[in-house]
Each structure stands twice: as structure tokens, then as C-alpha cells.
Queue: 2 jobs
Job 1
Amino acid sequence: MTARLGLGTYRCRDVAGAAAMAVRAGADWIDTAPNYAEGQAEQQLALVVPGTPGVKVSTKVGFLSAVTCDRAVRAGVITASEAEENYCLTPRFIAWQVSRSQRILGREPETVFLHNPEHGSMSAELKIQRVYEGFGALEQAAQEGRIRAYGVATWSGFSHGLFDVPQLLELAVKAGGRGHHFRAVQLPLSIVNLAPIAQALDGAGVLVDAAAAGLDVLASAPLHGGTVQEMVTPELAELIRPGSCPATAGLAVVASAPGVGRILLSTDSAQHWAQAVAAVEQHPAMSPDRLRRVVDVLGT
């Protein structure tokens, strides 16, 4: 598999400008959420994406921006206590948010992710029930043609053992039958978050399970907010890919991970985007042996 680069908008200062830059450079996927850019990310993307049918757009449900929270309360789809949490995954709210995102974006989202369903202090059992109910709401949206697919975007759900891919598939079948629309997982992968890559090299873990199930895997935070560039020494960069800089070396590791199909990079810079495309799409993946050496050097 050859990974592709997509635009992640979480850290973009100018979402519309970043999206226009990425589209001009040939990007075919943009990932966002209603709470990004102080609640304005979807509105900013609406300036760019309605006229780009070849670019897939994914968004999320879960976290509430101040504007969304106020409107959801007035619409009667969340309670005052849910508003205080700034987070909600009830079926009623999901249905409302999906319709709102579609209306704001001016198009049908390709994929809608449950956003960090591990969030909150409730028990693991209740969180899993919340995922199941969320899948049911997203199945309904898919069957009505308001979204094409859904998935789970998580920061720690896999790493902390709240769920795994087989369990999520069971929930999807329970919610939507064998023809369910659960199609993707999104999780952080980088030299800071190496454990899933190390597990995949041993033929186990989320990346292997997702590939076996035919799920799209989107890698978020591949540079971990700049931490990767600080961690990659010249010697490590040479081991990863001779002649590479720290950022492109870090991207090369994620691009070489088994099962990863999409890497989400947040940047407003055309120069950084071009360098990332070269690192991800225009070089062969590292061999498993070289990737294992890198994992052994860094540890997990």
C-alpha cells in the first residue's frame, strides 16, 4: 500500500487558505471537525470544498464549540448538563450535527467520525454503549444518503484498551447489519506513538486488524505538534531515509507503517506540503527490516 497525504485542519491557523493550498497541490482528502478553528473550521472549508467534487471531506461529531453548544441547546438537542460538558454523542445530537455539518459544508461528508469516544469519566461499559448508539445514528444518516460512511477518530481508545477493531466491527454489525457503513479509523501515529507500528510489524494490533477488515486507516498527528522534529537526530534521519530532514524522516516512518492509507498533515505552507508529498508519496516505503530497526532504536 502507498500512503497518501491529506490535509488535517486541527492546527491550521487559516483553514480556508490551507485547504485552497492543498487542493491546488493535488490533495484529495481534507479532515476537519465542527470544533476546530474556534468552531469556524467547517464554515471556512465551505469557501473551498463545494466546488471540488474530487476532494473527499471528513468531519466529526462529539466536541461542542461555543456556537454549536448554544444552538444545540436552543434547538433542544442537548441538555444543560451536556452543554456544560462541551461534549455529546447522543443519537439526537449526532443526527442534528450531521445535518448541520452537511448544510455548512455545502456538500455530503465522505466520512463522519465519532470524535474521541473515550472522552469523559463514565465507565468503559457506558462508553462502549455510547459508541454503539452513535453507530446507530450514523447508520441512519448513511441510509438516508446524508453521509457516505462513518468511523472512529480516537486519541487513546485503542492504546488504552477501551476498544479494538474487532469489537468496533461487532458494534457496527449490531447497529447496521452486514451491510454497515463503518469504513474508517483515525488514530495518532508518529515516532512518538510507535506502539501500533511495532505491533503491526509483529502481525498484530489495530493496523493489522483494520487492514484485514478493509477499513481505511488515517494517521493523525504524524509530527506530534513539532515534537518529532525535535526528536529526530541527524543520525536517526540517515537511518530512516538518507538525506532527509527531521520532518520528512518522521513522515517516512508513518508512511511505511503497514496498513496506513492516509496521513493527515496540518500545515498552511505550500513549501512544507510539497516536502511532505515528496516524503510520503514519491519515495518507496521503508522495508520492514529498516522500519523495525528504527522502532528498536526509538523503543515504544
Note: Residues 55-188 form a domain with the TIM Barrel fold (CATH 3.20.20.100).
Job 2
Amino acid sequence: MDQFSAMQAFRRVVEQGSFSAAANLTGQSHTVLSRQVKNLERQFGSQLLNRTTRRLQLTEAGTLLYRHCVEILDQMDAMTLELSEHQQQPCGTLRLSVSSAFGELELGHWLPGFVERFTQLQIELSCTDRFVDMLDEGIDLCLRVTDHLPDSSLVARTLAPSDVVLVAAPSYLKRLPSQISADNLGDHPLLGYNRLAQPQRLRLTGPSGSQRDVLMPTRVSANSPMALRAAAIAGLGIASFDRFIVHDALQDQRLVQLLSDWRQPARTLYALYPQSRYLAPKVRVLLDYVQDYYRLPRWPA
């Protein structure tokens, strides 16, 4: 007996409410469908349907088998579709959302190679610092560096850690009468990201594990990390950034890391996408591409 075909026949009979209706739908004869259901009953040693002249009614065993048939057959359909699409070249429009700083500083390193490899994809890029509603806005994939994930309905794939560093320009440090320490940090102006609930407060953990909250005065605040980066490089004060935002400026010494033995709460680069039974090929190839790119540390200290 072809058990898979018999399960399909049983499901169709149950969902259509009769052998005749199922026969019309599938193009199989009433006799063939009836024989397949009887073979299932014989195999499992249980009556699956109570048959009357007017209607069919599931038995307790039939209800249990029907539930498993739906689950198994749906999984098989999803697997068939996914494997079929896996063989195809990804195509269409891929809608990608990233933060403004990530878009400006990171995409140039890997997006050209991705576009060159997958020539039938069109990339529609959205750069915004707010958390987007991916379903409402039709976003396929979102890349975010964050310390919290507010929407549990999204699947989050971890790509890379992103530590947070305290920095200042050499020109700012030259004007100071004394060296910056954890004890006098609160006397210095912080360039604050005003989308945070407390943009002037820093939480630091010292070498011994001790913690302290530091409230710093305001000199410049902005809703743009890139604007704050420019202000820090210009010597307007101290700033706290994800390392990827200032990695190049630290390397060429336009900025200097401060209090390197004190840590701030770490953050993580995630790839976020809506839950689905299977991933569209265009999303899968981008996920695999960025995960492979960020497998090696990109922003070493």
C-alpha cells in the first residue's frame, strides 16, 4: 500500500465530507478512495470513519489519525516547495532594513559582493533608526545592533557581538588639565544619543566587577549616531558608541578609546525576520551571506 497516497485520500474524504465529493476533487474514483481508507483501517487495526447513508463521522482513532495526517502532509508540501525553490536562482525584490549608521559604515564592505553574486535580485534598502514593523512594512530582513529584542514574533539569528566603547578626540584630551578616570568622568560633557531613555547616563563595570552609573552633563545631543560621531571627532566631548561606528576612527587615531578596563553593557548584531514555515530563497541566501561575512571578527579592539 502507498501509505502517503492513502493518507492524502483519507484527508480529502474527511475535509470534503464524503467519498463522492473527494472523488470529484481528486479525479479518483469512489472505489479507489474507499479502498485506500479501508487499507488504512486494516493497517492501524481501528475503524476510522462511521459511515451512514447521509454522512461520514470520524471515530476517536480517525480524529487522531486525521490530525497527524494534516501535520505530516503539510510538512511534506513545505519541504517539496522549499527544495524546489532551493534549486532556483533567487530573484525578485529583497527588502532590507538597517540602521542609518550600519547602512553608511558596513554595507559597503559586503553588499557589493552579494549583489554581484545574485544578479537576479533587486535590493530595496531602508535605513532607519527606529524598530520597523516588518510585517506591516513588507520588510524581508532586518539587521540591527541592539541589547534587546522587543518583538518576540520575529526570528533572531545572532551574527556578531558588538561591544560599546567610550571615546574622545585627541584634540579634546589635549585641552584637559588631568587624565580622564572613572572618578572624574561625570565632570565631562557627553555627546548624547537622544533616542535613548537616559541619553546622559552611562553604566560601567570595572575590572573587579564593581558597577557604577555615571550621569554626565549635556553639550551636544542628536538623534543621529553619525552626527554624534562627527561631533566627537571634532573634539566636542566624550561619546559612547558601538565599536563598529568608530572602528575606523580608532584605527587612524581620529578618536581614542577611554577607560578601556571599564566595560559597558554589550550589544549584538542580529538578523531578524518574520516566522515562517520556510524561508524564501532570497532571504535564505542573504542570511547565509551575512552570517558567513560576520563569522570572523570585523571590529577587533
Note: The longest strand covers residues 154-162.
